[in-house]
């Protein structure tokens, strides 16, 4: 019998890779975020990326960051993490792990905690000094949801589509 391949991707590379691939579906011109929710036996339960809710056209709603709240994207975008939680149709997310390409905000932290997700693996944390992320970490710590920074391996993956 031949030996097995040695250069297969790790679980963390696989799930963070899926989160990053999901982010590529986002129409947000400034920040694209992807999320992947995984069971403790390594099964992908759900995925999501940031975008407008169903029925709210990507072409009609605003993508800008400035201007009145009614006229910019922030009232309308669903974050990747919330989309991944809401996309799940299978029952409970109790004990699951969330892989996400950007640290969750306070609103997503509430949904993460209430859904039963127990662990977060995140990549970027570019808004770490904002009240939203500081409040998020405060709630996650209080609720006992663990969070770890994804450790980049340096592996580059090219997929021809
Ligand atoms: N964790 C997150 N998940 C997300 O899906 N988002 C989304 C909401 C917006 O569509 C975009 C952030 O826009 P900007 O302020 O960087 O131009 O990313 C934002 C965060 C940040 O907390
Ligand atoms: Zn959020």
From TrEMBL:
It holds the Pfam family dCMP_cyt_deam_1. It comes from the Bacteria. Keywords: Hydrolase. The keyword Transcription does not apply. Residues 10-147 form the CMP/dCMP-type deaminase domain. Its cofactor is Zn(2+). Signal peptide: none annotated. The keyword Hydrolase applies. This is dCMP deaminase family protein.
């Amino acid at each position: 019998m031949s030996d097995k391949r040695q250069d297969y991707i790790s679980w963390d590379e696989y799930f963070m890779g899926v989160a990053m691939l999901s982010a590529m579906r986002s129409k947000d011109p400034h920040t694209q975020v992807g999320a992947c929710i995984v069971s403790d036996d390594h099964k992908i339960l759900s995925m999501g990326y940031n975008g407008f809710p169903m029925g709210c056209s990507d072409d009609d709603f605003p993508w800008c960051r400035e201007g009145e709240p009614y006229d910019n994207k922030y009232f309308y975008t669903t974050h990747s993490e919330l989309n991944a939680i809401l996309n799940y149709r299978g029952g409970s997310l109790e004990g699951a792990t969330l892989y996400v390409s950007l640290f969750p905000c306070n609103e997503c932290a509430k949904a993460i905690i209430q859904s039963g997700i127990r662990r977060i693996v995140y990549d970027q944390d570019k808004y770490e000094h904002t009240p939203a992320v500081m409040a998020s970490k405060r709630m996650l710590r209080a609720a006992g949801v663990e969070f770890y920074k994804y450790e980049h391996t340096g592996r580059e993956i090219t997929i021809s589509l």
